[in-house]
Amino acid sequence: MLRHPQFDPVAISLGPLKVHWYGLTYLVGFLVGWWLGRIRARKPWSPINEQQMGDVLFYIAIGVILGGRFGYVLFYNFDRFLMDPLWLLRVWEGGMSFHGGLLGVMLAMWWFGRKVGRSFFEIADFIAPLVPVGLGAGRIGNFINGELWGRATDAPWGMVFPQAPDALARHPSQLYQFALEGLVLFVALWWFSARPRPKMAVSGLFLTLYGCFRFLVEFVRQPDPQLGYLAFDWLTMGQLLSLPMIVAGLALMFMAYRRQVA
To answer: Nearest Cα to 93, choosing from 74, 82, 77, 105?
Structure first.
């Protein structure tokens, strides 16, 4: 049995200014994504150039923050919002949703595409391989904070999280998600998009793989206490929101390659 290292969530403290590790992981994710995006932008088939990467990064950052926060409120804690509407604005109290962030990023990509005269899927296919970098960095931030731990386990790598309301060894599900949603998803998408693919295919693969990975990890991740299990004593909100991603991803890939054959 392992114990969580209990990292200090504050990485740098300069008087009243405190920089948290969680914020730094997001920053690293955006910077690495920007660097990799500039590499992709040099390809002859790229829909944007290197100079536009800064602009698209700004749009995506806004989409992540606003979409992630609104998604968490809507999908996971709407009752609290009804009791305290200003809680929506207190982002420092925590609460971000990937699925909400994804919707925010999709809207941002559509908006940016209109600005530069590119279609939504041209931008989405370009951005999709960069997203796992941010996802992986965010999961490391979750692990440093000792949050979003997994369900109890007797596996030898089970970890005790002091922030949990008990002393049970739990799955370090943040690290599972870092490995699957970060490393594996990045390698798969980077390899798949290394040469031109039919429009929508890269986006479809992203949705399919992320949805599958998230659905599987939810079996060992502790459900949100305010929601618990939605049905069957195992279905979580994360799984419910991932199912449409899987269906949409498979549909996009089918349409992409069907159009290519036609």
So the answer is: 77
Q: In angstroms, what CA-CA distances link 218 with 166, 172, 174, 228, 242? A: 20, 12, 11, 12, 10
DSSP state of 43: S
> What tokens were used for 64?
């992540």
**9-58, pLDDT tens digit by residue?**
888 888 788 888 888 998 999 999 999 999 999 999 999 999 999 999 99
Which of 167, 127, 109 lies closest to 38, judged by CA? 127
- For residues 243 and 240, give the distance between their C-alpha atoms in angstroms, rounded to a whole number: 6
State residue 86 phi and psi, 5-degree precision.
Answer: -70, -15
pTM more than 0.70: yes
Backbone Cα Rg of the chain: 19
Residue whose C-alpha is closest to residue 122's, from 202, 209, 207, 47? 47
CB of 171 closer than 8 Å to CB of 155: yes
Measured at the CA of 107, the angle between CA 240 and CA 92, to 5 degrees, comes to 70
Max CA separation in the chain (angstroms): 64
